[in-house]
Specification:
By secondary structure, the protein is of the alpha/beta class. The protein has two domains: about 5-180 and about 220-245, Rossmann fold (3-Layer(aba) Sandwich); about 180-215 and about 245-280 and about 295-315, Alpha-Beta Complex (UDP-galactose 4-epimerase, domain 1), CATH 3.90.25.10. Helix content is about 40%, strand content about 15%. It contains eleven helices and twelve strands. It has helices at about 15-25, 40-45, 60-70, 85-90, 90-110, 150-170, 190-200, 220-230, 250-260, 285-290, 300-315, and strands at about 5-10, 30-35, 50-55, 75, 115-120, 170-175, 180, 205-210, 215-220, 240-245, 250, 270. The strands form three sheets. Strands 3-2-1-4-5-6-10 form a seven-stranded parallel β-sheet, with helices on both faces. Strand 2, helix 2 and strand 3 form a beta-alpha-beta unit. The longest helix is centred in the first third of the chain and has 21 residues, at about 90-110. The chain is globular.
């Protein structure tokens, strides 16, 4: 059965991957975003299949109107100011991240005869730094105590979405992903991670720090399939409402070695300098059990796909 899915932030990096995944599954997709730039959707080959509707998630009337007029039966809510932008614009972060999420939940409440599910982006940023945990893997019941404003907004959203379910019957599923990688990621605080792949893919040298520090390498296509599963999982299968999802845990040095295995001539150097923001080792047993989520892109598969996408765009032979 074909559903219409409205994706907030749908022309951005992750939103475009979610839209492409939904299109591939046969659904009608509306990308709801302040930006109507479809270049990532075009790169992913789905611009012609996605309806772009310009809108502002902080405007409650506009959100309700968009959901009602598009006939959306599912909403994937991704629109947010991320960690660095939230730190630099705290008031805007609260407006976009908290009020914007409230507007989406309100739309689902007032259009309860139309909207079956809201799948929305929480974040691994809700957790405290790793030294607060004894277990090797952190599950959803562990301490939630964020040390960033971005994480704090996501924590509040977990509480308000719970209340919307308990008091108003709004069906929702929140996901706690980490950092996405893949072609066409916008620049940001983790841009150096992309350069580990992108620079050697095009024959350029690159030096990276943080050698033995661990990253959760989560391909954007895996995060996209997780949101689709969250949007469509049968209600009876849901043992909880917030789920961890992750990719493959690997150090910066291991990531560099993976690139070298794919591109033996890669000019990459690694040092141990610097400290990365912490990464949790997330337990995703619940997402595997309830949502059927499994990582499809391990490091080698994800990096090779990433490298070959870039090489193809620059007229180079695939590897």
């Amino acid at each position: 059965m074909t559903d219409t899915v409205l994706v907030t932030g749908g022309t951005g990096f992750l939103g475009s991957y979610v839209a492409a995944d939904l299109v591939a599954e046969g659904h009608d997709v509306v990308a709801y975003d302040l930006s109507t730039d479809d270049h990532i959707l075009s790169k992913l080959g789905v611009a012609a299949d996605v309806t772009i509707r310009r809108g502002d998630v902080t405007d409650p009337t506009d959100v309700v109107r968009a959901v009602r007029e598009t006939g959306a039966t599912r909403v994937v809510h991704l629109a947010a100011l991320l960690t660095n932008a939230a730190r630099d614009n705290p008031r805007s972060a609260l407006t976009v991240n908290v009020l914007g999420t409230n507007n989406v939940l309100e739309a689902a409440r007032v259009l309860d005869d139309q909207v079956d599910r809201v799948a929305w982006a929480s974040s691994a940023a809700v957790y405290a730094p790793p030294d607060n945990y004894e277990a090797e893997f952190v599950d959803e019941d562990e301490l939630v105590y964020p040390d960033t404003l971005y994480g704090a907004t996501k924590t509040y959203n977990e509480h308000q979405s719970r209340v919307y379910r308990e008091d108003y019957g709004v069906s929702h599923v929140g996901l706690r992903p980490t950092v996405a990688y893949g072609p066409y990621r916008e620049t940001g605080g983790s841009a150096f991670l992309a350069n580990i792949v992108e620079k050697p893919a095009l024959g350029e040298s690159f030096s990276v720090e943080y050698g033995d520090q661990v990253i959760d390498w989560q391909h954007a296509r895996d995060i996209a399939q997780a949101f689709r599963r969250a949007a469509f999982a049968p209600e009876a299968d849901l043992g909880q409402r917030v789920y961890n999802v992750r990719g493959e845990m690997a150090t910066i040095r291991e990531a560099v070695e993976t690139v070298r295995e794919i591109l033996p001539e890669a000019d990459l150097t690694v040092s141990e300098d610097g400290d990365l923001p912490w990464t949790q080792n997330l337990d995703m047993t619940a997402a595997q059990r309830d949502l059927g989520y499994e990582v499809e892109y391990d490091l080698e598969t994800g990096f090779r796909s990433y490298i070959n996408t870039l090489r193809e765009e620059h007229g180079l032979e695939p590897v």
